[in-house]
Amino acid sequence: MDQTELARRVVARMMQDDALSQWLGIEVLDASPGGSVVRMAVRPEMNNGFRVTHGGISYCLADSALAFASNWHGIHAVSIETSISHVKPVQSGDVLTAKAEEASRSTRIAVYHITVSNQEGTTVALFKGMVFRTGKPWELG
């Protein structure tokens, strides 16, 4: 199986049991070697007391993009450090897209940069994630 097909199969397998991504309404637009693109619509109940979307929502979207991008090799990868910078406010009704790109990968550690943008293409958050590659292969059936 080629690398693109492996990435797609791993992400499809992950989504089967990813209750949070499903509840958020995350849609996988692309799963490819070294990256992923996911999208979701922001709902009114995702707002905080400032009447803007809670920062945890864009964080969750970026974290899902990280998970999908870092597992594409067919080896379980789990986050060990993440950070996010919220650079523009998000509103209910926005449609957010997170694009993850592999920045560095070794046998055990990999680093990814994720950009979250709204429907107008405006960057709303920048996320960095480091993962530990466990060595355990994904069972794809």
Quick overview of this protein structure:
This protein is an alpha+beta fold. The radius of gyration is 15 Å and the shape is globular.
Number of strands: 6
Shape: globular
How are the strands of the largest sheet arranged? 1-2-4-5-6-3
Distance between the termini: 13 Å
Largest sheet: 6 strands, antiparallel
Structural class: alpha+beta
Percent of residues in β-strands: 35-45%
Sequence of secondary-structure elements: HHEEHEEEE
The pLDDT mean sits at: 96
Compute the gyration radius: what is it?
A: 15 Å
Count, helices: 3
Model regions low in confidence, pLDDT < 50 over at least 5 residues: none
Helical amount: 25-40%
Could you list some keywords that capture this structure?
141 residues, alpha+beta, 43% strand
Description:
- It is a single chain.
- The chain is built from three helices and six strands.
- It has helices at residues 3-16, 19-24, 55-70, and strands at 27-32, 35-41, 75-86, 95-105, 109-117, 123-137.
Q: Would you spell out the secondary-structure blueprint of this structure?
A:
Elements: H1 3-16, H2 19-24, E1 27-32, E2 35-41, H3 55-70, E3 75-86, E4 95-105, E5 109-117, E6 123-137
Antiparallel strand pairs: 1-2, 2-4, 3-6, 4-5, 5-6
